[in-house]
């Protein structure tokens, strides 16, 4: 009995120690002390992929030199180097679960997937089923002999090493939905429920699939008496209803024509789940990093604008069930309308003194035109006081002034939140109309402005209202804003052009049912490479990390979205960032032929010169880079300064709203 008690105590202590380690292994002081520990040299080309084993005592890397190296990262030693048999750049490397770290899988630009036995340094399987570059491999602990690949032929393939056949099967064919030009770029399996597979591809939509449903559907099709009869309808419905769910940043589909005109490509370059499997992180090439909540889903606000009104019973606390939609405001079938009735003064909940000080600091930053600083301070206060309408309204004003990509949509979201908390928030009502206009929803903006005038008649003839009214009417009558763009055959925001990239009706339905993001992270640049990663950092996913085209990597607080650290990780571009599974330890790589290891440096050690002190300047430069034309980007990479772009952010000058008069001259 005593022996059992001792064993139990030891077990509890061990579990407690492990829990403590995993909970506190990444903390804010550690992040602020993060610095370069070592450089692992051994490759002769760009290092395009990194992978930790489950225990975190091995790190595998793959390179343009077609070699894979297995490292002992804790002692900075190269344990094994082997040529993989590939004839082109390696883009993905994965340890096969439950193989004792003996089996390693690689995917490369030669369209091949190779399986290697590290104990004998031999390639034991070679799969050549893809017809274009293989960009990512995914594995899952629940499927120990199975793995998946995503390639630029638009296919997701599944492999089972127990089968004698050297072939794979197509799990998902994106070309059946999106045409022949679609390319799959990345994929990942949910760590808590291995039945769910997320896929990133060409365009702004990220797809989540239920593998089990797909397999069950195909089994039932084979067992069906008509299994041998292939009809047109069968070909058009390769996946069962409910097996796919799409996610998209609500403003991106309508921005596609503008981006295409500027040769700016939107493509998901990396997807990953949070450790608990409830969130999906996406690095959107050509745009920002987005986090999607898989539990409390909400429809994109812009998708809801033309839809029928939802009853108040469908909205609860600004969120809905997984089958519902949440927009924080009533939308009528004939367009966009605010609540009926004349405004009355609504009491405001006072902020605690320390939050009031933060709000005042944010207001001061706003007055000094330090838009990002103001946004970060408002966000810090919002996290502590999520039901304060004034904070959302003020942050919306800062977003609208900064004008980075996606800022007007975040401002629209904040305005709707402010109005849901305080239906009489005058400035939020007006800013909402301005946001709709800036997002190209001109007819809805006019209707929203008309409702604002009815609700706040004393503001109906203000200079701000008159200015927005003129802008809206000019846009309505301009040829570039043809009303037919949003009629006939479905919303322009969801349709492709041309036959080769035409999308199916099933795809249209899935896109229309997409869910919106929860958080957005800004500052990095992702336009030059299509393998750039973003990852959760910390066992509780407290931080977000991403590589960047400027050679730095960026670290944000997850909940506030505030940028807290920028470090120079490469002489050109940082593509890969893989956090250690248990320690505050980060491996990065990019164009340089080295792997860099980062951890908190001792307080007695002077931090090296890789810290980017001017995070705001770096972020602004990256916004300009994303909005520059290809020639300007080339000149930037050559070290030339590009003139003619505003320092306040991409997409327009900062005096665009200067005529808004008393309605929107400053935060509350």
Automatic annotation (TrEMBL):
What residue intervals traverse the membrane? none
GO terms for biological process, alphabetical: negative regulation of fatty acid biosynthetic process
- List the keywords (alphabetical): Repeat, WD repeat
Q: Keyword Repeat, does the record have it?
A: yes
Pfam (any one): WD40
Q: Does the keyword NADP apply?
A: no
CC annotations in GO: Cul4-RING E3 ubiquitin ligase complex; cytoplasm
Provide the residue intervals of the WD repeats: 40-72, 83-126, 537-566, 567-608
Location of the region described as Disordered in the Swiss-Prot/TrEMBL record:
647-668
Highest taxon of source: Eukaryota
Concerning PANTHER family, the annotation shows: WD AND TETRATRICOPEPTIDE REPEATS PROTEIN 1 (PTHR15574:SF40), WD REPEAT DOMAIN-CONTAINING FAMILY (PTHR15574)
Protein name (Swiss-Prot/TrEMBL): WDTC1 protein
Origin organism is Himantopus himantopus
Q: Which gene encodes it?
A: Wdtc1
